[in-house]
């Protein structure tokens, strides 16, 4: 849906640190009987919508989005997306971030943190439109993510949440058409940028995008930005934004090593701190099993496993690119609907492949760890470790692709005499034992 653009975009508002009261939304008008009736609001596409069209029952122990005093245009988008109750991270963070407070949040993927920071940012932009004119390449909000896939998924969710507004979302990611992104910055009003560090820095240094009037900065998966070597770029980007006392900053990370703790203190201003992490390192909704096998048993067992699971969405992780290619070829020859994600696959093709996997056009993905970390897709029923990873932390990330959003998931790992020594290290990392099943040689 095309969004209408305002004739003139206003300039940046005053100091963010002057905490502002939340605007009251969903005001009611009295009808002839004296009862109050929610007033209807016209969305940019001309639709009339009222909060009375979005009924969600009050349930003990659950927080409704209705309870957050959000703009009607955001509430309509939330209804369209099928949300009713806040996830734990949303309920814990929104009361503070909607008031403009900085946030340090510990949360893993699949917890709803993307919607948490987007709803806060979008609601603020709608409640407090800027005054005066501004150039189109001065964004109001900036979200930095470590991988292209994650950035594009954040941008996709931002598009859905701004569907009934005039706010425009632009993604700036490496590995995709530079000229097309440059043209967007030159021809469209930019309210919210979602970017990977390298590509954003390219545009910022060439003055194609100006960050000195950014009102809100979100750093997502900060620990991964550290491990992937992006922190120097992120530091350069942060220096281009307003001082931390004049912007809102939200930092999310699954883990908080000392370096990330130091950066969080350096980049935020009197932040609220929220931690929403499972007691176990791995999700209790995931049924984990390790098959101890010989090398020549792995392929026939994998084939049988996929065929028995029917049309279930499945990811298979391999440790090396050549192993990924080999598995992909074997799956195709077995007439299994599959695709491959690895560093040697072009970014455009990776994006298309993920989209097909997400909509169900592809049943099975074969991936390496680097490509697999960008996969944030719901309803993945099965994760297979064709070989145990060299790093126990990678085991956690791999199986975390399933069992998301409260759904049940399953992980199957193959262990041979070459890598079974990793089992105790993995169990120590996740803090629990994993069921092992010995597979006998087939006659």
Strand order of the largest sheet: 7-8-6-9-10-5-11
CATH topology of the largest domain: Rossmann fold
What does the largest sheet look like?
7 strands, parallel
Span from first to last CA? Answer: 59 Å
* CATH superfamily membership of the largest domain: P-loop containing nucleotide triphosphate hydrolases
Q: Which CATH C-level class of the largest domain is it?
A: Alpha Beta
Spans where pLDDT lies below 50 across 5 or more residues? 1-15, 27-38
Helix and strand composition category: alpha/beta
Number of domains: 2
Q: What best-fitting shape do the alpha-carbon axes yield?
A: globular
> How many β-strand runs?
18
| Average pLDDT | 84
Task: Considering the chains and any ligands shown, give keywords for the structure.
single chain, 443 residues, alpha/beta, Rossmann fold, 2 domains, seven-stranded parallel β-sheet, 15 helices, 18 strands, 17% strand, globular, disordered N terminus, ATP-binding, cytoplasm
Outline the secondary-structure elements.
Layout: E1 28-30, E2 36-38, E3 41-42, E4 48-49, H1 72-80, H2 88-97, E5 103-107, H3 113-127, E6 141-144, H4 148-161, E7 169-172, H5 178-187, E8 192-195, H6 197-205, E9 216-219, H7 222-227, H8 231-240, E10 248-253, H9 258-267, E11 272-276, E12 286-292, H10 298-308, E13 314-317, H11 321-333, E14 338-341, H12 347-359, E15 364-367, H13 369-372, E16 382-385, H14 392-399, E17 409-415, H15 422-430, E18 435-438
Parallel strand pairs: 5-10, 5-11, 6-8, 6-9, 7-8, 9-10, 12-17, 12-18, 13-15, 13-16, 14-15, 16-17
Antiparallel strand pairs: 1-2, 3-4
């Amino acid at each position: 849906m095309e969004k209408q653009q305002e004739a003139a975009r206003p300039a940046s508002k005053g100091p963010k640190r002057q905490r502002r009261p939340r605007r009251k939304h969903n005001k009611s008008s009295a009808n002839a009987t004296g009862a109050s009736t929610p007033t209807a609001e016209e969305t940019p596409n001309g639709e009339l919508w009222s909060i009375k069209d979005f009924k969600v029952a009050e349930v003990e122990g659950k927080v409704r989005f209705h309870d957050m005093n959000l703009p009607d245009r955001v509430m309509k988008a939330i209804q369209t997306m099928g949300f009713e109750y806040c996830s734990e991270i949303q309920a814990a963070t929104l009361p503070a971030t909607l008031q403009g407070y900085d946030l340090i949040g510990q949360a893993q993927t699949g917890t709803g943190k993307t919607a948490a920071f987007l709803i806060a940012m979008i609601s603020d932009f709608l409640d407090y439109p800027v005054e005066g004119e501004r150039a189109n390449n001065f964004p109001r909000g900036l979200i930095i993510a470590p991988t292209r896939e994650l950035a594009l998924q954040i941008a996709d969710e931002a598009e859905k949440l701004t569907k009934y507004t005039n706010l425009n979302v632009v993604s700036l990611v490496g590995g995709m058409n530079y000229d097309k992104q440059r043209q967007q910055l030159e021809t469209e009003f930019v309210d919210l940028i979602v970017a990977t560090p390298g590509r954003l820095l390219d545009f910022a240094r060439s003055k194609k995008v100006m960050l000195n009037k950014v009102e809100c900065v979100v750093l997502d998966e900060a620990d991964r930005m550290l491990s992937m070597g992006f922190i120097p770029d992120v530091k350069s980007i942060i220096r281009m934004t307003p001082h931390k006392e004049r912007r809102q900053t939200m930092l999310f990370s699954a883990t908080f090593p000392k370096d990330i703790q130091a950066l969080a203190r350096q980049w935020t201003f009197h932040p609220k701190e929220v931690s929403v992490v499972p007691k176990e390192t791995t999700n209790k909704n995931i049924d984990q099993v390790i098959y101890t096998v010989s090398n020549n048993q792995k392929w026939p067992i994998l084939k049988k496993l996929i065929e028995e699971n029917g049309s279930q969405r499945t990811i298979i992780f391999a440790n090396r690119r050549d192993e990924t290619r080999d598995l992909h070829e074997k799956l195709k020859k077995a007439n299994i609907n599959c695709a491959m994600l690895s560093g040697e696959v072009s970014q455009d093709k990776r994006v298309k492949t993920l989209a097909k996997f997400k909509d169900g056009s592809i049943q099975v993905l074969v991936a390496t760890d680097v490509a697999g970390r960008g996969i944030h897709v719901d309803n993945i029923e099965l994760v297979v470790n064709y070989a145990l990873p060299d790093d126990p932390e990678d085991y956690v990330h791999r199986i975390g692709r399933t069992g998301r959003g409260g759904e049940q998931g399953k992980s199957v790992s193959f262990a041979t005499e070459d890598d079974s020594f990793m089992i105790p290290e993995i169990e120590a990392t996740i803090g629990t034992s994993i069921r092992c099943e010995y597979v006998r040689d087939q006659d």
